[in-house]
Design brief:
Elements lengths: L2 H10 L19 E2 L7 E2 L6 E5 H7 L4 H5 L5 E5 L7 E5 L7 E5 L2 E2 L20 E8 L3 H4 L6 E7 L4 E9 L3 E11 L3 E12 L17 E15 L2 E15 L12 E17 L2 E17 L4 E18 L2 E15 L5 E16 L4 E12 L4 E14 L2 E12 L3 H5 L15 E13 L5 E20 L6 E21 L4 E14 L12 E10 L3 E10 L2 E2 L8 E2 L2 E11 L4 E8 L18 E9 L1
Parallel strand pairs: 6-9
Antiparallel strand pairs: 1-2, 3-8, 4-5, 6-7, 8-9, 10-11, 10-33, 11-12, 12-13, 13-14, 14-15, 15-16, 16-17, 17-18, 18-19, 19-20, 20-21, 21-22, 22-23, 23-24, 24-25, 25-26, 26-27, 27-28, 28-31, 29-30, 31-32, 32-33
Length: about 600
């Protein structure tokens, strides 16, 4: 089977008519990235690419996005509070605002957040079919916000009925309901999910904070498609989420009555037309976030983004390619209540060429013209070579940029007796090399990656303790060198094993200090088992010490090891009983200094599938 045909076949299985269909064990195809790379790409040929499918999410018992992203090497996930605390991702040492987050192709980063970062705390995985992670500078594909990489979520297409209910520790209750119909011509489905818990104290209970801080989240969505004529298809989705969470603030963090509420929606509408030998995709996507904090210094922030895209995909001989144009507009509120607008117009092209059956080269180029910060051209090139005997050698080099966020552009919360500096976009370049191996029976695969990511003109918040001047300035230069190791094996007796490890050396080049909230060592191991009716997975995760701030004498978050156990017993084709235990050994640990994590906790539930 040629590589191009293999890609087409593998891509086709990503969109089955039934969201609950299971592939036969012998029907093994390579994992393919579709959304994050804009053209189908085999994961083992694509440096920095990973795919987390719905089966893996279910096997791990992951409820929210932060629960599963911690297992991806090179991603540092931190949250300020176990239930509903702000959860952010640092990818390969890049600050949180440098990871672009997509939901069904719609960018959802919070334009009103100081760095433009996305908060994963309330992102429910109940409607998610797959998660694609693409590490390294991806501005040639997606423009600003993608210096560290891209995380793309794809929602499920539903055929049938699925319901779940669960209850457990901290008076936690959770329920999901999804229903839909799908065939080759059309599909329409919807879902609703609710999570409620009394929680634990956001401030660490071990520091004398007994007050529990609750969390609630509701997620509702719809997804559909229809083919109206040969070569003409319309599809779209919409997703709405609302959360409320108790907070603890202060220096040091301690119990109080603070709380927050947030509401977000995102969606897209797309027309796909076959014409002139190409597949043309015309899409409009949008997202809106409103978050309010209730405290002595309460605040309300709102942000929205719209993206208008045309993309043409084609294939000729050994070449697969895509090109197009897009316009993105965002607006975010600042502390004064004013709303600030930013915009970018872009053109891009990317393509892969199979030079031989063993060697392929992929390249991309993009031109972004911002309304306020000039223009920037970025590019990326990668190659993959089949060495034989199951080995694949790959490498990539790419550049990136990030325009100032809304808060940075107007210097929100700034004060100075002198004019604020004029900010420039941040710039980045990264390179990586990987060697992968897959056994001849496809039961074992492994990959080792080494990389470097450098960021220049990084925007930092400057504060003078003498004059109290405070403002944003392009001063910092950061560099991250790292190694990522990962492997998966289908063992005998129904067992499977997944391993991941990352060594991350992330530093501020101006002073040599380690970057905050990025552990030098982190890893996870998951041992799964699937029997005729009983299945389960034990996941052990470990992180080394990490500095909590970028100061000369930062507080240190201690290292920790924690384990989760998830199990399911299938009563019949339609009913499954579930159970999970988190923090199996009842270890005390923190992800961020001062914020507590739950001790041993257990949950039982039921799943229905029709």
């Amino acid at each position: 089977m040629t590589r191009s045909l293999l890609l087409a076949t593998a891509a086709a299985v990503l969109f089955p008519s039934s969201a609950f269909a299971q592939a036969a064990p012998d029907d093994i195809l390579p994992e393919v990235v579709v959304t994050a790379t804009r053209i189908p790409a085999i994961v083992e040929d694509t440096p920095g690419a990973r795919v987390i499918d719905a089966a893996t999410i279910e096997q791990r018992g992951a409820i929210f996005a932060a629960d599963i992203l911690t297992d991806v090497p090179g991603l540092s996930v931190t949250r300020s509070g176990a239930f509903g605390g702000v959860a952010q991702v640092r990818m390969r040492g890049a600050t949180p605002g440098k990871t672009l987050v997509l939901v069904d192709g719609a960018p959802v980063n919070d334009a009103a957040e100081p760095n433009g970062a996305y908060d994963f705390s309330g992102f429910d995985l109940g409607d998610i079919d797959r998660v694609e992670v693409l590490s390294g500078p991806q501005s040639s594909l997606w423009g600003s916000d993608a210096i560290g990489g891209v995380i793309a979520f794809t929602t499920k297409e539903i055929d049938g009925l699925r319901a779940e209910a669960e209850a457990g520790s901290f008076d936690t209750v959770r329920g999901r309901l999804a229903v839909g119909m799908a065939n080759e011509t059309w599909a329409l489905g919807g879902y609703v999910s609710r999570f409620d818990t009394d929680g634990i104290s956001v401030a660490d209970e071990a520091d004398g904070n007994p007050e529990a801080d609750g969390f609630g989240n509701t997620t509702v969505g719809v997804r559909g498609r229809v083919s109206v004529a040969p070569g003409v298809r319309f599809d779209g989705s919409a997703r709405w989420s609302q959360s409320e969470a108790g907070l603890d603030n202060g220096f040091p963090i301690s119990d109080n009555a603070d709380r927050s509420e947030s509401e977000q929606w995102s969606g897209f509408a797309r027309a796909t037309v076959q014409a002139l030998g190409l597949e043309h995709r015309f899409s409009v996507s949008g997202s809106d976030i409103e978050r309010e904090t209730f405290s002595a210094f309460g605040s309300v922030f709102e942000a929205d983004r719209q993206a208008y895209r045309w993309q043409a995909n084609g294939q000729t001989g050994a070449a697969t390619f895509a090109f197009g144009a897009e316009r993105e507009e965002s607006a975010g509120s600042i502390s004064t209540g004013d709303s600030i607008e930013l915009g970018t117009s872009s053109v891009f092209a990317t393509g892969r060429y199979d030079l031989t059956d063993a060697l392929s080269v992929t390249g991309g180029l993009r031109f972004d013209d911002t309304d306020d910060f000039g223009s920037k051209t970025t590019g990326r090139i990668s190659a993959a070579y089949d060495l034989g005997y199951g080995f694949t050698l790959s490498g990539a080099y790419g550049t990136g940029f990030k325009a100032p966020s809304v808060s940075q552009a107007v210097c929100d919360f700034c004060f100075a007796a002198v004019p604020f500096p004029t900010l420039r976009p941040e710039k980045a370049e990264g390179h990586e090399a990987a060697i992968g191996w897959r056994s001849s029976d496809d039961r074992i695969e492994a990959r080792a990656t080494i990389y470097h990511l450098g960021v220049e003109d990084q925007i930092s918040f400057f504060f003078d303790p003498v004059t109290f001047d405070s403002y944003y300035v392009n001063v910092a230069e950061t560099a991250t060198d790292g190694v990522e190791l990962e492997g998966r094996a289908l063992l005998r007796g129904g067992f499977d094993l997944s391993l991941a490890y990352a060594w991350t050396d992330a530093k501020d080049e101006s002073n040599g200090r380690p970057l905050a909230r990025i552990p030098e060592h982190a890893g996870s191991a998951t041992l799964g088992w699937t029997g005729e009716r009983l299945s389960g997975a034990l996941t052990v995760r470990a992180e080394g010490d990490q500095p909590d701030t970028n100061s000369a004498t930062p507080a240190i978050r201690d290292s920790f090891v924690t384990a989760n156990l998830n199990a399911a017993y299938q009563l019949n084709d339609h009913v499954t009983l579930t159970a999970r235990v988190e923090n199996l050994a009842d270890k005390h640990y923190q992800q961020i200094v001062g914020y507590g994590e739950p001790g041993r906790s257990g949950y039982v539930g039921i799943r229905l599938r029709y």
